[in-house]
């Protein structure tokens, strides 16, 4: 339960997997040079394609994806815990998984998590997303054991489902990763308040690396990567949508202190209704 330095790498992924690996690796090295022991990247770290067909064409099965050995080697080289927010992993000719990977400092995969809640939303002015059309959702919450305590893995749209975070916190998570590729309209309205709420409700740190800027197909993402403390305080924030690195010092004891100060995780009560 010692303190450590965490970093969020904010990227602007393209539809070129090899170029994304190069750009992300450079930023991860920068984060390690700034003293980070835990480094998180955004959702869609390996690929932001113009459309569903392009995503399927450029994605790989897990055992063939070049991102996985590249990031395993990088974690081992830098001796860091590396949370790759998510990769598009091809499952078959029609679907991918939106899957997060946590690499330990020895380069081994310490945990995998496939995004449970899929983004099927009409955002604004005809901007719509149907993630479920090309992605198979996961069905299991995931905790990972780290030297600092238990970490809950989530992805982007998951943040709108507080029951997931409560389950993770009650199972011992002192921090959550929330890698994201948030739209600009929803980001402006909800990004900060949702992440701070998940931190406050659970007395947990939130480490939310984000995509930022304009991608293939003119998709725009909000940026503003955040690290939030267990009392809801913003510890670090990327100033906009530009690629870069933010860092913050994390003391897991602060999570325990917040939960002792406001022990709502122990106050759940059964109740009846309403009937659905």
Task: Give a quick summary of the entry.
The protein is α/β, with parallel strands linked by helices and 276 residues long. It has helices at 17-33, 52-58, 67-78, 162-170, 184-202, 252-261; strands at 4-10, 38-40, 81-90, 96-103, 109-114, 120-124, 127-130, 142-146, 149-153, 173-177, 205-208, 212-214, 220-222, 226-228, 234-237, 244-250. It is 27% helix and 30% strand.
List keywords for this structure.
16 strands; 6-stranded mixed β-sheet; single chain; globular; 276 residues; alpha/beta; Nitrilase/N-carbamoyl-D-aminoacid amidohydrolase
- How does the major sheet shape up? 6 strands, mixed
Helix share bin: 25-40%
Secondary structure category: alpha/beta
Sheet with the most strands: spatial strand order: 5-4-3-2-1-16
Mean of residue pLDDT values: 96
Please name the fourth-level CATH homologous superfamily: Carbon-nitrogen hydrolase
Number of domains: 1
Q: How many strands appear in the DSSP assignment?
A: 16
Order of helices and strands: EHEHHEEEEEEEHEHEEEEEEH
- Name the CATH architecture: 4-Layer Sandwich
Query: Low-confidence segments, ≥5 residues, pLDDT <50?
Result: none
Q: Can you put this structure into words, describing what you see?
A:
This protein is of the alpha/beta class. It has a single domain (4-264), classed as Nitrilase/N-carbamoyl-D-aminoacid amidohydrolase, CATH 3.60.110.10. It contains 6 helices and 16 strands. The strands form 4 sheets. Strands 5-4-3-2-1-16 form a 6-stranded mixed sheet. A 6-stranded mixed sheet has the order 8-9-10-11-14-15. A two-stranded antiparallel sheet has the order 6-7. Helix 1 (17-33) packs parallel to helix 3.
